Amino acid sequence: MKSRFLIWFNLISLLLAWLACSPMAAAHPLDEFYQVTYVVVGPHRITLQIEQYPGLLIAPRILALVDSNQDDQISERESQAYAERFLQDIVFEIDGQPVAVIPTDFEFSTPLELRAGTGLIRFELIADLPPDHRGPHQLYYKNNYQPDISVYLVNAISDEARWVNIGAQERDVFQSSLRADYAINPDAPAVTDARPDDVLLQSEVPTGLPAGQKELTGYLYEANLSPLLMIAALGLAALLGGLHALTPGHGKTLVAAYLIGSRGTTGHAVVLGSIVTFTHTASVIAIGLLALLASQFIVPNLLVPALEVLSGLLVVILGLRLLRSRWHTPAEEHHHHHHHHHPHDHPHGHSYLHEHDHHTHHLPEKVTLADLLTLGISGGLVPCPEALGVMLIAIGLNRILLGLGLIVAFSFGLAAVLIVIGILLVRSKSLLERLGGVGGRWQKWLPLASAVIVTVLGLGIVAKGVLAYLG
Fold it and tell me: What is the mean pLDDT of the chain?
């Protein structure tokens, strides 16, 4: 019974890790242009609130459209020109008729932040409604701006629900278009000078950076960092890396599947985490320098998918090797039973041989350095956008050593979580084995099952990279 509990514990651990790292939830938007549109319907005005987040690899393309004279300054005229260029690629209609909109309220991050993939572009498009615009209506919005690199999100809301009722909303599969029904109460008050839309924008729409990362990049802008602040910055970077590792992805499933199905030790978990740290740091530096020095040669829609495919192929190779080495277990088990029932006149010798065969049949092969290298490289090959952003800002501010220190600390925090997960799996498994024994009808299948899961996960990573490239 205890042995069966051990099997189910390990299988449930694999399942939970797999669910936590679902490819559908994992996203590294290095090569995406994330565009959010809130269609805010009021009784007298409709406001299109536009937010755009350029990923690091496509930021040079967007920045060239924003900073048209390439002087590393974004003027009011350039902001206006960018919004007007955006207007050429959208469609906005009410009841089937085109509606004129006026761009206003521009908010652009600095060119340095945009170049680092941590910037935000935000502006509003305003359409005033006629005084007799009451009763039911239908609006249509379509965003055709930069479709080859964009990921869209659109939603219709009302900041004055007392006077405006939002009905059915219909979006296309890419969320680049929206058709929404709305109705304005005939008793709505007359036009006022108030702009409640602004309150909504400031209170409910997220800013460009998470609070922790914003504070971390803030250290880079400090002209003189005291030793205490330096330690605080490194500690914060490690903490952010650890928290980031808890988000979907980052090889937690692979670590769980491999260590559960192998003779992994605490030392192996530490070595694996160290390899992830080194690989992730090297990947951040290499891709960051490539984006900074050779951005014109980068094909944004190809680089990240190619890294994902390469990472997945490494995992598939490892999984197939594990499958090949563990596939003979059932045959050996049959041979073991035959030998056990063979009559003999040497009880002591048989006892020794029986113990030896029993252990070799139920324990998988030892962990190899090649396996750890494969897992570690695949887990750290695709860099986190947060770390890349910190590095490029550090280079732009000529704080390279501090930036490298923050990246190493970030990678260390990320790897520390993988190490802790690995140690917990190894310790819990060994503890349960001591309590319940290694035997059991299902125990011999666990290494084979973990090898299958590793292979399937690798195929999933490859498929994700291919699908990302295909669009």
Answer: 75
